[in-house]
């Protein structure tokens, strides 16, 4: 349900974005946010002025026993590295934050076990290739703090392919 709300909000605010961003990226990809297992993720990113790049990602999953949701936001200073076979190659580093929520859906479980949330903040990296209409990127946020010592749930990696709007 949250995924569909994200998509609806995205299309509501999409017409306002050209005033803020020079490029808008919308893609799908594989994320390592599920403690190393991959899951389908939505990547939404913006080229901002002064070579800054705002990257956001959401991924979630559920089964009859539990659910898992991850949200990631990173502000990255992007630099043009050159031109590759497929287009412009850019990359950079910055700061990212992530929020993870895991919960049990079993009503018989102890109340302390029903919800587990972690918040991570740390360095973020992204490398991307874009052709002017299509992009491919690899991004990673290292969650430092409580999440780094609790099984690495704050680390969020994403490989995405999408369109530039």
What features would you describe in this structure?
This protein has 165 residues and is mainly beta. The chain has one domain (2-164): Porin (Beta Barrel). 10% of the residues lie in helices and 62% in strands. It has an eight-stranded antiparallel barrel. Strand 1 (23-34) and strand 2 form a beta hairpin. The longest helix has 12 residues, at 2-13.
Kindly list the characteristics that best describe this protein.
165 residues, mainly beta, Porin, 8-stranded antiparallel beta barrel, 2 helices, 8 strands, 62% strand
- The tally of helices reads 2
| CATH topology name | Porin
Class by helix and strand content? mainly beta
pLDDT averaged residue by residue: 79
* The top level CATH class name: Mainly Beta
Query: In order across it, which strands form the biggest sheet?
Result: 1-2-3-4-5-6-7-8
| Helix fraction by DSSP (H/I, runs of at least 4) | under 10%
CATH architectural label: Beta Barrel
Number of domain modules = 1
Low confidence ranges = none
């Amino acid at each position: 349900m949250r995924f569909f709300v994200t998509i609806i909000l995205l299309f509501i605010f999409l017409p306002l974005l050209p005033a803020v961003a020079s490029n808008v990226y919308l893609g799908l990809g594989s994320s390592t946010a599920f403690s190393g297992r991959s899951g389908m993720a939505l990547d939404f990113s913006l080229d901002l002025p002064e070579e800054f790049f705002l990257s956001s990602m959401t991924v979630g999953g559920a089964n009859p026993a539990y659910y898992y949701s991850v949200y990631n936001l990173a502000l990255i200073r992007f630099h043009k590295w050159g031109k590759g076979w497929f287009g412009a190659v850019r990359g950079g580093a910055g700061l990212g934050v992530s929020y993870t929520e895991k919960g049990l859906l079993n009503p018989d479980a102890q109340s302390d076990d029903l919800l587990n949330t972690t918040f991570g903040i740390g360095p973020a990296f992204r490398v991307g290739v874009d052709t002017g209409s299509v992009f491919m990127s690899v991004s990673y946020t290292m969650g430092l703090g409580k999440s780094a010592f609790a099984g690495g749930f704050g680390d969020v990696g994403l490989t995405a392919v999408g369109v530039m709007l």
